[in-house]
Specification:
The protein is an all-alpha fold and about 375 residues long. It folds into two domains: about 160 residues, Citrate Synthase, domain 1 (Orthogonal Bundle); about 100 residues, Orthogonal Bundle (Cytochrome p450-Terp, domain 2). It has 15 helices and three strands. A hairpin with a 4-residue loop joins strand 1 and strand 2. The chain is globular and about 70 Å long. The protein binds acetyl coenzyme *A (ACO).
Amino acid sequence: MTTSTGSAAAAPAHERVLSPGLEGVLAGETALSKVDGANGRLTYRGYRIGDLVEHGTYSSVANLLWTGDWDPEARLATSAVPDAVLTTLRALPRSAKPMDALRTAVSAWGATQTLDWPPTPEQARALTSFSPSALAAFARIREGKDIVEPDPSLNLVEGFLYQLTGETPEPATARALDAYFIVGAEHGFNASTFTARVITSTMSDIASAIAGAIGTMKGPLHGGAPSEVVDQLAKMGSVEHAEEWLRGALDRGERLMGFGHRVYRAYDPRAAALRKVAEGMEHKPDWLQTAIGVEDMALRLLAERHPDRPLKTNVEYYAAPVLMGVGLTPDLFPATFSLARHAGWTAHVLEQAADNRLIRPDVRYVGEAERDLPG
Ligand code: ACO
């Protein structure tokens, strides 16, 4: 591959191609995941996402991302929340958004740790094990409930549900959420991952990188919209009323939630994996059949409106029934997505640190020409 280093060799800014949003710009290399948008394929270290969901666990996938080794027996459990972090979470307003609480918790956790450079797989593991406990603790604190201590005999996803509800989850429920965590674990150079890599490139620590990534994922253009999928399906009511509602929404210029993607031009392979999980769930939401019926109709109408721009089902469409089916409230969806993405974010931190170069692009100046101060 051709690598350009150093702005000294670059042409003046006004002669160079500007790419707003860095779209199409190659800003690095990764061995972690391959997002093949044209063909609707996703692999983690070469392994197909569908196979990982079927045969792996989130613990084994996180281990794969961190180390490159496939160990189906790899174990990861939740860890205790340090007192200083609990004090911080208790000081937050109960109305705080779970994403704000999680970002704050990660930042406070960083202040309680010695996080020397370079970041290590142990640091990645410690942070990934901490965050589910912190989110569960905040969810209980805001309801005036006692926090639940981690049970080290449970895997990370079971432990998260246990600390959230105080009850050991049914295996099928934990397995469904585990599948969601696997599909959410990693996805190339998306905005939050890129943020984590920029922060790491300054030789800052892993907690700062992940706090920044959570802040980035909080934005509505990134954090996903599974709760809006639920809202839209509720507005349609039934498959019989769906076509009229969908046509009306498209006429008003509204977006159909759970469809379209910046990279995928084919069916999002994560949606395919989660549809299977949703259909196999014991406690699936009663609107799942409506969602399945509406999907084909929505795809047909989107193809009619945008014959040249393939708009297919994305991961959020079937994330919605899985997250609802395991008993999470919609306001926890974005923070739960962040918990899942910890494996990928921290793996990118390790990858960036292993071959580090400060990330510092150029900007084209479009302000006033050099001039004298008035007077
Ligand atoms: N419903 C209706 N029309 C759509 C949709 C949609 N879901 N998505 C794109 N379009 C239309 C746009 O209106 C646009 O039409 P125009 O050319 O007539 O103006 C055309 O398709 C191209 O749209 P872009 O904005 O260029 O597509 P982009 O790749 O930037 O957008 C995005 C991707 C933001 C995901 C978009 O498809 C969307 O808003 N989808 C709905 C929200 C959603 O499901 N978000 C979750 C994404 S997955 C994730 O974040 C993990």
